[in-house]
Design goal:
Layout: H1 7-13, H2 16-25, H3 35-46, H4 50-63, H5 77-82, H6 86-95, E1 101-103, H7 110-116, E2 122-126, H8 129-139, E3 161-165, E4 177-180, E5 185-186, E6 189-190, H9 201-207, E7 213-217, E8 231-237, E9 240-247, E10 258-263, E11 269-273, E12 288-291, H10 294-298, H11 302-309, E13 312-313, E14 321-323, E15 331-340, H12 343-352, E16 355-362, H13 369-376, E17 382-391, E18 394-404
Parallel strand pairs: 1-2, 1-4, 2-3, 4-7, 8-10, 16-17
Antiparallel strand pairs: 5-6, 7-9, 8-9, 10-11, 12-14, 12-15, 13-14, 15-18, 17-18
């Protein structure tokens, strides 16, 4: 759960004395093995401020993997876990550039920072007073508790952002695009049930029916439970699927109901929609097996991706593609041999190819890669990838060498 920050903690950590103390604490390793000793040292100097100081330094260090410049930021553990990575927040903000926006679950302000750079007016609201105070700190402005922002709130003296305490299910602004990020845990567990999000997704959609709305969701959410007439965008960052975003019809391109967006930390971006062609040929396995980015798979756009790059499917029910080349930005596997999926055959072929380090990938078959690797016992020197899938009814294995073109 992490340390429970208070208003007093936020005030102290943002003061000159707090900033100086954080600088001193940041000199300590604060590793799992040194933490108790380090915490005792901090207590001797800073007494009852020690826990807040140590937790803040540790959270800032964790945040560097997600946020572009979190050096002076404040966090809570839960808020950092749910904070949108900077590259993803920046992409969403670019889609909303020039619009007035209200983030009704703004938390510590990670999304607000990006929105403020491209939107003329931004409102951030939350029911958690401490998170609002942290958001004010992270935005570099003062925040005074008010009941609700009201329809006319469009800016502040210091920035184009207003912060306010408000219930996400009670509309409190007018003429704004609504952004929401419901908490994805219920009873301490991650949930894929839209009705168990906080606030519940069906209630959120009902509260803003007819408004321009963007709702961030977990990519594994069961969208079949939603009656959604707009666009569902699945976003990945550096090969990992990060989120899905529901865009209401007024924010979606005409004819688009599914979109996959592939981002990298280097700043590249590619996008694919279901408005593009999905006609592909049938054929035998080509020179390569291509594993499309997870955003493309989750968005149901594998055939669209294949059509764009002149590829085809190994099997119409499986997301592996094949063809003569590997598109830039995608992981591919050059086929060395096609094998029957029998352990005796696999073991003999791995030995014949002097296989050592072995990656095992499987789709469409019930395979435990770790157990199979222990059974096959590769003991050679050459690295290979074993791709196991189903073509028709037959489980099939391909011995491959891998090429990672995701950063090209």
């Amino acid at each position: 759960m992490g340390y429970g920050f208070t208003h007093d903690d936020v005030g102290y950590l943002g003061s000159a004395a707090g900033r100086a103390a954080l600088t001193e604490v940041d000199r300590l390793p604060l590793t799992p093995t040194s933490l108790l000793k380090d915490l005792e040292q901090v207590r001797r100097v800073y007494s009852d401020r020690a826990a807040a100081l140590v937790e803040t330094v540790r959270l800032r260090r964790r945040a560097t993997a997600k946020l572009a410049d979190p050096g002076g930021w404040l966090f809570t553990d839960d808020a950092l876990q749910q904070a949108t990575p900077t590259a993803v927040a920046r992409h969403r903000a670019a889609r909303l550039a020039g619009r007035a926006v209200h983030d009704v679950t703004c938390s510590i302000g990670a999304e607000l920072v990006e929105l403020a750079s491209v939107c003329p007016a931004v409102v951030g609201s939350d029911l958690d007073d401490v998170r609002l105070a942290i958001a004010a700190h992270n935005l570099g402005q003062r925040w005074f508790p008010v009941a609700e922002p009201g329809p006319s709130a469009t800016g502040s003296p210091t920035r184009n952002v207003v912060l306010a305490k408000a219930d996400a299910l009670r509309p409190s602004s007018a003429d704004t695009v609504i952004i929401a990020d419901p908490a994805r845990r219920a009873d301490g567990r991650r949930t894929h049930d839209p009705a168990k999000l906080q606030p519940p997704l069906p209630d959120l959609l009902a509260a803003y029916r007819g408004r321009d709305l963007a709702v961030k969701c977990a990519p594994g959410l069961d969208f079949d439970r939603l009656d959604w007439a707009g666009e569902i965008e699945v976003v990945s960052l550096d090969g990992a699927v990060r989120e899905a975003c529901l865009w209401s019809p007024g924010l979606a391109d005409a004819g688009v109901t599914r979109r996959a967006t592939v981002l990298t930390s280097a700043g590249t971006r590619s996008t694919l929609t279901d408005a593009e062609p999905d006609d592909i040929a049938d054929g035998a396995p080509g020179d390569w097996i291509i594993d499309p980015d997870g955003a493309i798979v989750r968005a149901g756009l594998v055939r669209h991706y294949a059509a764009e790059h002149g590829l085809w499917q190994l099997d119409p029910r499986i997301a592996y593609l094949t063809g003569p080349r590997v598109p830039a930005g995608t992981r591919g596997f050059r086929i060395i041999d096609r094998l029957d999926y029998r352990e005796k055959t696999l073991r003999a072929e791995l030995r014949r190819h002097d296989c050592g380090p072995l990656e095992i990938l499987a789709r469409g078959v019930d395979v435990d890669p770790d157990r199979l690797r222990r059974t096959l016992k590769p003991a050679g020197s050459q690295p290979f990838t074993l791709v196991i899938t189903r073509i028709g009814r037959a489980p099939t294995a391909f011995l491959c060498t891998a090429v990672d073109a995701r950063m090209r």
